[in-house]
Write a structure and sequence with these properties.
Blueprint (H helix, E strand, L loop, with lengths): L1 H21 L7 E13 L14 E11 L5 H5 L4 E10 L3 H4 E16 L3 E15 L18 E13 L4 E13 L10 E15 L2 H4 L23 E16 L11 E15 L2 E11 L19 E13 L2 E10 L2 H7 L2 E10 L4 E10 L3 E18 L1
Antiparallel strand pairs: 1-2, 1-8, 2-3, 3-4, 4-5, 5-6, 6-7, 7-8, 9-10, 9-16, 10-11, 11-12, 12-13, 13-14, 14-15, 15-16
């Protein structure tokens, strides 16, 4: 009798475990589609395009992506973000001057606060803008904003999503959008837009069609994952020294509309300290080579022989997630000619991807005279020293 009772209890236990596994609320792959409309005004600092941008801008944006469910530690530490790819199409002013720009981009959404129905979040996006109508000395000479058909697309959204029902969210917020050539082609005033956005997001489970894809399904999977507890940043101490080499391509304003360009170089020796899995700090030295500086009108004739090498030093902050690091650095020119031609300070926003514990790739923008674009740099680096401790 005891044997039969024990066998029954064991069977019941394993059956419950099996039923619990079958009813896992996070079973499947959680995906979404979203549509947003944008409108707002331009933040234009030039002189020639004010009336061409006076009607503001409007755009439509489509996104698709994945909602994380805590499968990896970094997802829990960043409050279960979502990520994906998107497409943008917009009206940015007079189409005869700017064309009809579209953009393809990647994005990630970081929840900041979580309420019962409402989530506040921040969403950076980075990609490529295309179908622009660039400056042309013959028929588009007043366009001092864009010098090429392609440009970098960067957008930053702050706002939230409000859950309307099982599948649908209402999206709302504020946006900053930027198109720029990074001085790869001139002119390069860029287009900067600020405004509001609203739309909807549809959430679904991609495994539903495999489980029950009938017109009236009887087995319905959850459309959203069950979000677990937010985990604080893991404490980790890492110190490393790296060397990074990058190149870029620039054009001077006097050469706008021509094929004359210059190749630039950025060599960086940098020390980084990681406080935890979120935050780090850097300090380092920069060696910049910019042959285009010799041919600028600001360069004194008696200094052309030494107007291409610009040493500098920088400090910075690093925000880290997954294999990516978002870097923001403030630099200081150390030479007299550097201060004269490039100003006292420069900044370098950049994104780094860690291939492994030693090698990394990095894409960034180096500026001059504060925040004026100098060149886009892309390169690889190696950590020549690395020490970790918990």
């Amino acid at each position: 009798m005891k044997f039969i009772l024990s066998l029954t209890l064991a069977f019941t236990f394993f059956l419950c475990q099996d039923l619990q596994a079958q009813k896992d609320p996070n079973e499947g792959s959680f995906k979404f589609f979203s549509l947003k409309l944008h409108t707002g005004d331009h933040l234009y600092t030039g002189q020639t395009l004010g009336d061409k941008l006076s009607n503001g801008y409007g755009s439509i944006e489509l996104r698709t992506g994945w909602q994380t469910k805590g499968k990896h530690d970094w997802e829990k530490r960043y409050n279960y973000p979502s990520y994906g790819i998107g497409w943008y199409s917009g009206y940015v002013g007079d189409t005869e001057i700017f064309g009809n720009p579209h953009a393809l981009f990647g994005f990630i959404t970081f929840p900041v606060t979580r309420g019962k129905r409402n989530i506040l979040q921040i969403e950076p996006a980075l990609g490529l803008t295309y179908n622009l109508k660039p400056y042309n000395p013959k028929d588009n000479s007043i366009n001092d904003a864009i010098g090429a058909r392609f440009a970098v697309y960067f957008a930053l959204h702050t706002g939230g999503k409000y859950r309307l029902n099982r599948e649908v969210d209402l999206l709302y917020g504020f946006d900053m959008t930027h198109f720029s050539n990074g001085r790869t082609v001139t002119p390069n005033m860029g287009l900067n837009m600020a405004g509001v956005s609203a739309g909807f997001r549809y959430n679904f489970n991609a495994m539903q069609r495999k489980v029950d894809n009938s017109l009236h399904p009887t087995t319905i999977l959850e459309a959203r994952p069950t979000i677990g507890k937010y985990e604080k940043a893991a404490r980790i101490r890492e110190d490393n020294i790296s060397i990074y080499q990058a190149i870029g391509k620039v054009q001077n304003p006097i050469d706008a509309g021509t094929n004359k360009h210059y190749i630039t170089s950025s060599t960086v020796l940098e020390y980084q300290h990681k406080f935890n899995t979120f935050h780090g700090a850097t300090v380092g030295f920069d060696a910049f080579i910019d042959p285009s500086a010799k041919d600028t009108a600001q360069n004194p004739l008696n200094k052309k022989d030494r107007a291409s090498f610009f040493p500098g030093a920088h400090i910075g902050y690093d925000f880290m997630f997954w294999k990516l690091t978002v870097k923001f650095q403030i630099g200081f020119n150390l030479s007299g000619i550097g201060k004269e031609l490039k100003g006292n300070t420069y900044i370098r926003p950049a994104v780094r991807y860690e291939f492994n514990n030693r090698f990394f790739g990095q894409l960034g923008l180096k500026t001059f005279k504060g925040a004026t674009a100098d060149w886009v740099e892309f390169g690889v680096g190696y950590k020549i020293f690395r020490k970790t401790s918990q």
